[in-house]
Amino acid sequence: GKNVNTPNRIGHVPGINVGDEFQYKAELRVVGLHFRIMSGIDYVEIDGVKFATSIVSSKKYDYDDKFDADVLIYTGEGGNMINKEKKAEDQKMIKGNLALANSMIHKREVRVIRGGESWDGKGKHYVYEGLFLVDNYWLEKGVSGKNVYKFKLCRIPG
Amino acid sequence: GKNVNTPNRIGHVPGINVGDEFQYKAELRVVGLHFRIMSGIDYVEIDGVKFATSIVSSKKYDYDDKFDADVLIYTGEGGNMINKEKKAEDQKMIKGNLALANSMIHKREVRVIRGGESWDGKGKHYVYEGLFLVDNYWLEKGVSGKNVYKFKLCRIPG
DNA sequence: TAGACGTAGA
DNA sequence: TCTACGTCTA
Q1: pLDDT at B1 over 60
Q2: Which residues in chain A are contacts of B3 at CB distance < 8 A?
């Protein structure tokens, strides 16, 4: 059940600072940074319009997100790249991808969490990177030859 | 990574009482009751012999565990009943099933956690039921027609 | 690398 | 009911 104190909102989460580290997606949920345990893009719907609230980057599977200090090139979701039994498909402008596109047009802040390997090689860990704005997005051919969305996010100064 | 304070041991876990409730398998791990997030039978290996430390009962999938106040009929693991794309197979006397059989022979305590639906219908919850001994085990034909282990566990009085 | 009684939301 | 950037052990 969802007995979580903090609701999913756009922007800063009180008590959370840039550089804070976490071990599990479940922890991100508890502190209010990112509520979807198995999904990289979290979003809310306001008056029928989806807006991204947070994204978690990864190097796993075919998600080769590029992280520079202040710029992130983030791979969209969908296409079933994980499940090897299913064929890869073009990503669609729905759900989280649509939310990121809307966040760009409406200039809404997006929380960015960087996912990576944990120090001991087993498991993962997550670092809160702060608030970003979606600057641009485009389509690329992924490893599978199918269309993949790429979102460029830039850190909000200050 | 496994940065958990309590190691996986047989028997009582300090600070945990019968009736204590939890929401996630991950919580069971943190408090030291059950370390395997996606597996029902947890065990340790001592001098090359596997012994069960804890089991989590369930009503999901084809795991129709029967719970009476002091007796649990627990379904063994394996057989791939979950993954519908794979054919069901006979369960084997390996891993967790072997650990439970060894716990019976050597009269080792097993922690029992009862898994069930959460109050709101979404999600699940887990209740610590206390220490049990494996009294008996046998093979049955499961729903799929394949061999399934059933373990009878009885609550240790007091 | 694959398998395992996981979770939440569309 | 299915999908989703999970998480651990063998």
Answers
A1: no
A2: 23
